Amino acid sequence: MNMKFLSSAALAVTLVLASTGCRHKPVNVTPIPNGPNGQVGDLGQQPTMQQPPPITTGQPIAETGGGWDPSNYNQNRDALAADSIHFAFDSAVIRDSDQANLQAIAQQLQANPNDKLMIEGNCDERGTEEYNRALGERRALAAREALAALGVSPDRIRTISYGKDKPVDPGHDEDAWSKNRRDDFVLLEPKMGT
Predict the structure, then answer these.
(1) Closest by alpha carbon to 155, among 34, 67, 43, 41?
(2) pLDDT below 70 — which residues of the chain?
(3) In terms of pTM, does the model score above 0.70?
(4) For residue 96, which of 33, 146, 141, 132 has the smallest C-alpha distance?
(5) In the chain, what is the greatest distance between 2 CA atoms, to the nearest angstrom?
(6) What kind and span of H or E run contains 109?
């Protein structure tokens, strides 16, 4: 009789635990900037997860930026080419070793107040198209937030995710993948007469 009671109690506890599941707080989640003015969100706030929009292969996800038109700017890909930052697998956390690159970018923008910046988030080839687009976006937003913390107005920065569509190394091994998990920075300089 006692064994039947213990079995029933154990079964009831197991069913309760299985139906409620375990909840955990996400770790190292990059908060998404909020509001139409591009203000960076409170770092203590957790972003709300939404279903990503359908992705068309080859189409980047355009994200945020001020009310300025990128067509009024010339893209200078060489100016900040050496300042790309790289990420660990499946991560949007900026490494301590990349802080100097971000500081150099912030200094460049502070010295040239009319310039803007495009941050391009990229991933390696592993994972689905949708997942890599979202991860590339989180990586670009992480760099945008880091630059905002260094004094660069978020209104001067646009982000875009290319997912896995723009690898710098076409290889299929960890060496190539580590090069492809990156943010690239494109300096946008005003065109003459604008």
Answers:
(1) 67
(2) 1-66, 193-194
(3) no
(4) 146
(5) 91
(6) helix 99-111
